[in-house]
Amino acid sequence: MLHIVNKSPESGSALHDCLRLCRSSDVLLLIGDGVYAALSGAWLQRSLGAAKAVYVLTPDLDARGVGARRDPRVVPVDYAGFVQLCCDHTPIQSWF
Amino acid sequence: MSPVRKKIAVVCRCPPYGSSYPREALDTVLAAAAFDQPVSLIFLGDGIWQLVKGQQPAQGKSLEKLLSALPLYDVDALYVDADALAQRGLTAADLSLPAQVSDSSALADLIAGHDVVLGF
Lengths: 96, 120
Fold this sequence. Notes:
The complex is a heterodimer of chains A (96) and B (120).
Chain A: E1 2-5, H1 14-21, E2 27-30, H2 42-50, E3 53-57, H3 58-63, E4 75-77, H4 79-88, E5 92-95
Parallel strand pairs in A: 1-2, 1-5, 2-3, 3-4
Chain B: E1 8-12, H1 21-34, E2 39-43, H2 63-67, E3 78-81, H3 82-87, E4 100-102, H4 104-112, E5 116-119
Parallel strand pairs in B: 1-2, 1-5, 2-3, 3-4
C-alpha cells in the first residue's frame, strides 16, 4: 500500500504513527510539510528502514527551498509521479 | 441499493471533544453502513480515548452515547491498538464497546486489506 504523510516529523505524530504501521512491502510518499522528512537524519533512516521505498514530491521541496538538501536515497517525483504512485498502489492511507 | 461494495477502513487517531474529527469519523462510518459498505473502525494512539467509558460532556452530545449506536448499524468490526492501550494505562475493560485488541503488525495487515482508508 501507499502511505502519504503531509506533516513534518517533529510537528506531531503523523510520521511516527505511519512508520509503526508501515510494512516492508509498503511505500511512503512525503508531501507538504512532510517533505522535511526527506532530508538526511534520524527520521529518514527510520523511514528507509520501514518502507520499501521513500518518495518525495519535488514541488513541495522546492517551495520550501530545501530541494538541494534532499537525501539521495529518497526518490523525487513530480505531480505526474504522484498520480502514478496512487495508481500503482492500493489502498492509500493519508497521515496528518 | 448500490451494487458496488468497497471495504472501508476508518482510522481514528484523535481524542474526543477537542476537535470535530471523532464525530466526522462516526458520521462516515454510519453513512458507509447505511449504504451497505463493509466498514472497519480502527483506533490508534489518542483515538482510543474515544472509547473510554464514563464520558460526561457538560454540553453537547456524548461521543460514547453516539458510538453506542454502532451495533444497531451492524458495525462491529472495531480494532484497538494494543500499544496505545498499554501506554495509556488502559485495558479492554475500560472501553465502552467490544473491540479487538491488536498489535501494530496485525493492524497494518488489516488496513492493507481494505479498498479505501480514511483517516480522522
